[in-house]
Design a protein that fits this description.
Blueprint (H helix, E strand, L loop, with lengths): L7 E5 L4 E3 L5 E3 L2 E4 L4 E6 L2 E2 L6 E3 L5 E3 L14 E9 L2 E4 L3 E5 L1 E2 L9 E4 L4 E4 L4 E2 L3 E6 L2 E2 L7 E4 L3 E4 L8 E8 L4 E3 L3 E6 L7 E7 L4 E4 L4 E3 L2 E5 L3 E6 L10 E4 L3 E4 L8 E8 L6 E18 L4 E4 L4 E4 L1 E5 L3 E6 L2 E2 L6 E4 L4 E4 L8 E9 L2 E12 L9 E7 L5 E6 L10 E8 L8 E5 L5 E4 L7 E10 L2 E2 L6 E4 L10 E7 L2 E6 L10 E8 L6 E7 L4 E4 L7 E10 L2 E2 L3 E6 L1 H9 L5 H51 L6 H37 L6 H18 L1 H5 L39
Parallel strand pairs: 2-11, 13-22, 24-31, 32-40
Antiparallel strand pairs: 1-4, 3-8, 5-6, 5-9, 7-8, 9-10, 9-11, 12-15, 14-19, 16-17, 16-20, 18-19, 20-21, 20-22, 23-26, 25-29, 27-30, 28-29, 30-31, 31-34, 33-38, 35-36, 35-39, 37-38, 39-40, 41-42, 42-45, 43-44, 43-46, 46-47, 46-48, 49-50, 50-53, 51-52, 51-54, 54-55, 54-56
Helix pairs in contact: 2-3, 2-4
Membrane topology: Single-pass membrane protein
Keywords: Disulfide bond, Glycoprotein, Immunoglobulin domain, Membrane, Repeat, Signal, Transmembrane, Transmembrane helix
InterPro entries: FN3_dom (IPR003961), FN3_sf (IPR036116), Ig-like_dom (IPR007110), Ig-like_dom_sf (IPR036179), Ig-like_fold (IPR013783), Ig_I-set (IPR013098), Ig_sub (IPR003599), Ig_sub2 (IPR003598)
C-alpha cells in the first residue's frame, strides 16, 4: 500500500502489451477510494470516447473489439494508453501502457551452404524481426533437429552450431520462425562433410565472437563464441574489468557459448571470449558488451499529509532504475507548473509548496520513467482550515528608514480579532526564492516592526499573518520596498615619504568599503584652510604620489571613497618632510656606482692581504726552522775549529755528544730559551784563554781540520740564517805563547755566530 492515497489510488494499472491484428484487446484498470469515482481512458493524451470499436467495461477496464494496426481512416490502435480516476478529493493518472501490434517481417538472413571437413565445426544462422520476438527452430531434411544431441547447439537468436562433424551430419537445413502474428520458413542450405579428420596443426581461430546486447532485468543473455583449430582450442570467458563472472545463473552452451539467466544490472559489462591452444599461451580473443536495463521503481513513495493554511508542504519521491529515471509531478492529473511558492529540488525528487492555501489541496502524483519502463505513486495534500480564523491583516505599508533598516506597519484584521495571539511578519529579498523567506514574530498589540540588518540598495517583500491558537489567517497583501543606498566606508590610508619633495599615499581595497566608484584625495599645508584637490582616482587604484611639496612645513592628506549615493567618511594623515631633509644633509646620498666600485676594490684588497699574510707566516716558520738548524751546525764547527791540546779528544767528543744530544731538547724549548742555551754551550767550549801563539796554531790547525772535515757545512749555510750574539768576555791572563783572547776569533764573520 506504499504510495497510495487512502482517498483515491490504483489497485491495478494497465500494462504494456502486444496485440494481434483483428483480435480483441483488454486493458485493465482498477481503482479504490472514496466513492463516487469516475474512470476515463486516454490514448496518446487524448480522451477516448466510447464507440463500437473501443468502450469501457463496468469494472473500469478498456475493451478494444478488433485491434487494427492501421484503420481505413489512417488511424491506429497502437499507442500509449492511460487510465484516469477522479473523486471529490482529486484526480490520479495511471502509468502509460505501450500497446503494439504483433508483426513478423521476412527473413533478412538465411542459412548458407557449407562444406566442412570431418571433425570440424559447422554454423548456420537465420535472422528475422517480429513482435513478440519470434521463436526459431531448425529442421534437417524436413525433420526437427534432435536437441538431445550434445553436438548440436541451438541459440535463441537463430544460430545452429554443430561440432565434431561426422559424415551422418550431412544434409539439408532450414529454420522455422513462429510468433502470435505468423509462421515463416527460411531458405534451405546444404551441409557437406568432406574427407577424414585432419592432423595438420592449425592455430586457434574464433569464427564468431559475442555481439553487443541490450536487455532488461530478468531476461536471458546468450553470448556466442565458436572457435576452431587443431588441436581443438579451449574456450574461456572473463570480464574486461577483472570482476568475476560468478556461477549463479551461468551456463555454457555447446563448446563455448555463455548463457546468463535472470539478468540483473550488475551483469552489465564487457565480456571477453578467449580461444586457447592446449598447453600453450597461444590464444585469440573477441569481446562484446552487455547492457542490462532496469525499469523505474520507487525507493521512497510520497506520503499524504495534512497542513494548516500558510505553512509549507513537502513531498518526497525517490526512484531508481537503469538508466536513471526522469521524475515528473502531476497535480490532479495535470503536469505541475512551478511558481514562486511551488518549487522542485533534488532532480525533481522533492516537491515543496510554500504558504499553502485551500487552492493547493489536491492529489499530487510522482511519475518515474526511463527507457525500460515507468511507474507512478500518488499522495494527497489536505489543507487544514478552521472556521472563525481572522481575516488577513489590512493596510500593510513599508517605509525605508536607512540603508539597512525598513519599518513595516499594518492594521488589525477586519474579522475575528478576539482570539489573535500575535502576528508574524514574513520577509525575503524580492529576488530570492520563496524558501529563503524568514519570519519575525510580533505581539498582538504591536502594529509595526522595525526590520534591521538589511542590505543597502536591495528590494524586500513583506506580508503579515495573524495567528490564533487554532491556526493562521490568510496572508495579507504583499508590499515591496527598497533600502536606501549606502555611501562607502572609510578607507585605510598610509603615508610614505619618498624624498624631500614627494610622499606616497597608499590604501588597501576592502569589501568593507561597500559599493564604490572611486576615491578622492585632498592635501594641504596645515596652516592653510584651502585643500589641493580633489584628485579623482579609479576604484582599482591603490596608490598616488604627491610631488612638489615644501620640506619646511607639515602637510595634511585626506582620502575618501565615493559612489552614486555620496562621499564616505574620510581618513586623515599628517606628514612632515623636515626630518628627511636633515637626514639628507647629515648623510648625503651615496654614489651607488662609486660605492659599488669601492666595494669591489676593498674586496680585492682583502683577498690580496690574506694571501700576503699567509705567505709571511710560511716564511716565518721556515726562517725559525732553518735558523735553529744553522745555529746547531755552526756550534759544531766552532767546537772543532777552536779545540786545543788542553782539551782531551775524549772530552771534545763528549762535549760534542752532549751538544748533539741536547739538540732534540733544544728544539722543544727553543721558543723560550734557545738563544741563552746556545751561549751557555759556547762558554763551555772555551773554559780558558790559551796563549797567542797557541791560539794562532790552534786556529791554523782548526782551519785545516775545518777545511778538511766541515768545509761543506760552513760554506753551504748563508749568513742570513744565523743570529749574531756578541759578548764582551772578561780579560784573561796571557797564555805562555802571549796570545790574547781576541786572537781566538778568526778574521771572518762566522767566527762569532752562535
Amino acid at each position: 500500500d506504499f504510495g497510495r492515497s487512502s482517498e483515491l489510488a490504483f489497485v491495478v494499472e494497465p500494462s504494456d502489451d502486444i496485440a494481434v491484428q483483428e483480435q480483441p484487446l483488454i486493458l485493465y484498470c482498477q481503482v479504490e477510494g472514496i466513492q463516487p469515482i469516475t474512470i476515463t481512458w486516454r490514448k496518446n493524451g487524448v480522451m477516448i470516447v466510447d464507440s463500437e470499436n473501443a468502450f469501457m467495461l463496468a469494472n473500469g477496464s478498456l475493451y478494444v473489439s478488433r485491434f487494427q494496426r492501421v484503420r481505413a481512416d489512417g488511424s491506429s490502435d497502437e499507442g500509449e494508453y492511460d487510465c484516469m480516476a477522479q473523486n471529490h478529493y482529486g484526480l490520479v493518472v495511471s502509468r502509460k501502457a505501450k500497446i503494439q501490434a504483433a508483426t513478423m517481417s521476412d527473413f533478412h538472413i538465411h542459412p548458407q551452404n557449407a562444406v566442412v571437413e570431418e571433425g570440424g565445426v559447422a554454423r548456420f544462422q537465420c535472422q528475422i524481426h517480429g513482435l513478440p520476438e519470434p521463436v526459431i527452430l531448425w529442421h534437417k531434411n524436413s525433420v526437427p533437429v534432435n536437441t538431445n544431441n550434445e553436438r548440436y547447439t541451438l541459440l535463441p537468436k537463430g544460430v545452429l552450431q554443430i561440432t565434431g562433424l561426422r559424415a551422418e551430419d550431412s544434409g539439408i537445413f532450414h529454420c522455422v520462425a513462429t510468433n502470435i502474428a505468423n509462421v515463416k520458413f527460411s531458405r534451405e542450405a546444404r551441409l557437406t562433410v568432406s574427407g577424414s579428420h585432419s592432423t595438420v596443426y592449425k592455430d586457434p581461430m574464433i569464427l564468431v565472437g559475442p555481439e553487443n546486447l541490450t536487455l532488461t532485468v530478468h531476461q536471458t543473455a546468450v553470448l556466442e563464441c565458436i572457435a576452431t583449430g587443431n588441436p581443438r582450442p579451449i574456450v574461456s570467458w572473463s570480464r574486461l574489468d577483472g570482476r568475476p563472472i560468478g556461477v549463479e545463473g551461468i551456463q555454457v552452451l555447446g563448446t563455448g557459448n555463455l548463457m546468463i539467466s535472470d539478468l540483473t544490472v550488475q551483469h552489465s559489462g564487457i565480456y571477453v571470449c578467449a580461444a586457447n591452444k592446449p598447453g600453450t599461451r597461444v590464444r585469440r580473443t573477441a569481446q562484446g558488451s552487455l547492457v542490462v536495463q532496469a525499469p523505474a521503481e520507487f525507493v521512497q513513495h510520497p506520503q499524504s499529509i495534512s497542513r494548516p493554511v500558510g505553512t509549507t508542504a513537502i513531498f518526497t519521491c525517490v526512484a531508481q532504475g537503469e538508466p536513471p529515471p526522469q521524475i515528473t509531478w502531476l497535480r490532479n492529473g495535470q503536469i505541475l507548473e512551478t511558481s514562486d511558492h511551488i518549487k522542485l529540488k533534488n532532480n525533481n525528487s522533492t516537491l515543496s509548496i510554500y504558504g499553502i492555501n485551500q487552492a493547493d489541496e489536491a492529489i499530487y502524483q510522482c511519475l518515474a520513467e526511463n527507457s525500460a519502463g515507468s511507474t507512478q505513486a500518488s499522495a494527497r495534500l489536505t489543507v487544514l482550515w478552521a472556521d472563525g480564523l481572522p481575516s488577513p491583516p489590512q493596510g500593510v505599508r513599508a517605509e525605508t528608514v536607512s540603508a539597512t533598516t525598513i519599518q513595516v506597519s499594518w492594521e488589525k484584521p477586519l474579522q475575528n480579532t478576539k482570539e489573535i495571539i500575535g502576528y508574524v511578519l514574513h520577509i525575503r529579498k524580492a529576488a530570492d526564492p520563496v524558501e529563503m523567506e524568514y519570519q519575525e514574530a510580533v505581539s498582538k498589540s504591536t502594529f509595526q516592526q522595525l526590520v534591521t540588518d538589511l542590505e543597502p540598495s536591495t528590494s524586500y517583500s513583506f506580508y503579515i499573518k495573524a495567528y490564533t491558537s487554532r491556526g493562521a489567517s490568510k496572508a495579507s497583501e504583499v508590499t515591496v520596498v527598497s533600502t536606501l543606498g549606502e555611501v562607502p566606508a572609510m578607507p585605510s590610508l598610509f603615508i610614505k615619504v619618498i624624498n624631500s619633495t614627494t610622499v606616497q599615499a597608499t590604501w588597501e581595497p576592502s569589501i568593507k568599503l561597500g559599493q564604490h566608484e572611486g576615491f578622492k584625495l585632498y592635501y594641504r599645508k596645515v596652516h592653510l584652510s584651502q585643500y589641493t584637490g580633489p584628485v579623482l582616482l579609479a576604484s582599482n587604484v591603490t596608490a598616488y604620489n604627491i610631488t612638489h611639496l615644501d620640506a619646511s612645513v607639515v602637510y595634511e592628506v585626506k582620502l575618501l571613497a565615493y559612489n552614486q549615493h555620496g562621499d564616505g567618511n574620510s581618513t586623515v594623515r599628517f606628514v612632515s618632510l623636515r626630518e628627511t631633509v636633515e637626514r639628507t644633509v647629515l648623510n648625503p646620498p651615496c654614489d651607488c656606482m662609486k660605492d659599488e666600485q669601492n666595494n669591489k676594490t676593498s674586496t680585492t684588497g682583502i683577498i690580496i692581504g690574506i694571501h700576503i699574510g699567509v705567505t709571511c707566516i710560511i716564511f716565518c716558520i721556515l726562517f725559525l726552522m732553518f735558523g735553529y738548524r744553522g745555529r746547531l751546525l755552526m756550534c759544531k764547527n766552532v767546537q772543532e775549529q777552536l779545540s786545543t791540546p788542553q782539551i782531551p779528544r775524549s772530552q771534545r767528543s763528549a762535549t760534542g755528544l752532549v751538544l748533539n744530544g741536547a739538540t732534540r731538547r733544544d728544539r722543544d724549548d727553543r721558543d723560550l730559551n734557545g738563544k741563552q742555551l746556545d751561549m751557555n754551550e759556547l762558554e763551555r767550549l772555551f773554559p780558558a784563554s790559551p796563549s797567542q801563539e797557541q791560539q794562532e796554531k790552534g786556529i791554523t790547525s782548526a782551519q785545516s781540520r775545518s777545511a778538511s772535515h766541515d768545509e761543506t757545512q760552513i760554506s753551504t749555510l748563508p749568513l742570513d740564517e744565523f743570529s749574531i750574539i756578541e759578548e764582551q768576555p772578561d780579560p784573561l791572563p796571557k797564555n805562555p805563547h802571549g796570545s790574547s783572547p781576541a786572537a781566538l776569533a778568526p778574521d771572518h764573520g762566522p767566527a762569532n755566530e752562535g
